[in-house]
Structures are given as C-alpha cells and as structure tokens.
Amino acid sequence: MGQLLFNSSYGLKLSVSQVVREIVGFMKFDLKRQYKITIGTDSEQIGEGKADFVTAVVVHRVGNGGRYFWRRLELGKFHTLRDRIIKEVLLSLEVAQEVLSELKKLQDIKFDFEIHADIGENGETKAMIQEVVGMIRAYNFEPKTKPSSYAASNVADRHV
C-alpha cells in the first residue's frame, strides 16, 4: 500500500513530513504563542462491515486560530461500535508516532501534544472511556475525550 497523503485546506496532498513542515512553519510565524498539536480520528459505518475513517492532525495557536490536515481511509470488518472506536484510536496513535518522529528531526519548538478520542460520558461509548484512555496513556500520550476532543469530534467529523 502506498503512502497515505493528508489533505490541506488549500486542496494540497501532503506526506506526513510535509504536514510537519507546514505545522512548524505555522508555529515559527509567532514563537511567543503557545501551541497544541492534536490528533484525532472519527469514523462512520458505510455498510456491510465497512467503515470510513478520517484522521485529523491539528495545530492550534492557543487563543489565535490554527490549521489542520486530514486523510480518509476505508477499511472493512467492523461489526461493532467497539471495533470501530479501537481502530480510530489505533489510527490516531499510528499517525501521532509518525508526526512526532518527523517533529524530532526539526528544530526544538515547544508545543503540547494530545490524542483526541471520539468518546464521552454520554452515549454508547461511555463504557469504553477507561479502556481507550488507558491505550493512549500506554503510548505516553495525553488523552482527551468529549467534550475536549475537538480533533476527533469536530475536525475529523467534518470529513466523514
């Protein structure tokens, strides 16, 4: 399978290293600001066990806007909501590792880093919160769930 490219708001198709260069350029524009890089995935059942997954990489200039990049992946064999949620988290973790690997190659820029899961206290995913938060923490990432998980529940959700 070829490298999965991310979409930018300008309609460009970018590799992970190009996304990271865009993020760093955005952060370098105003180094006095605080930045938060968040990654989240949302999915939608599209029939016969298949699901559409969208992963978003968001760079937030706290208090002053941000940029995001997203990619879509269609996968099969998802018969339960739990299966889909676990795959969402695994996709986010995979992208997070790639993004951080590229960020480490570049200059030292300070930022917070979070993984956003599309689960919350209300609804069917409530029973999965501890499991999902534990998965994310096992990778040494800061987990966020609804209503704080905007990368998954707002940005990625816009494209599913």
List its salient traits.
160 residues; alpha/beta; 5-stranded mixed sheet; two-stranded antiparallel sheet
Outline the structure in words.
The strands form two sheets. A five-stranded mixed sheet has the order 5-4-3-6-7. It has a two-stranded antiparallel ribbon with strand order 1-2. It has helices spanning 16-28, 81-105, 129-138, 150-155, and strands at 6-7, 13-14, 35-47, 50-61, 66-75, 112-117, 142-144. It has 160 residues and is α/β, with parallel strands linked by helices. It has one domain. It is built from four helices and seven strands; from the N terminus they run ββαβββαβαβα. A hairpin with a 4-residue loop joins strand 4 (50-61) and strand 5 (66-75).
Secondary structure topology:
Layout: E1 6-7, E2 13-14, H1 16-28, E3 35-47, E4 50-61, E5 66-75, H2 81-105, E6 112-117, H3 129-138, E7 142-144, H4 150-155
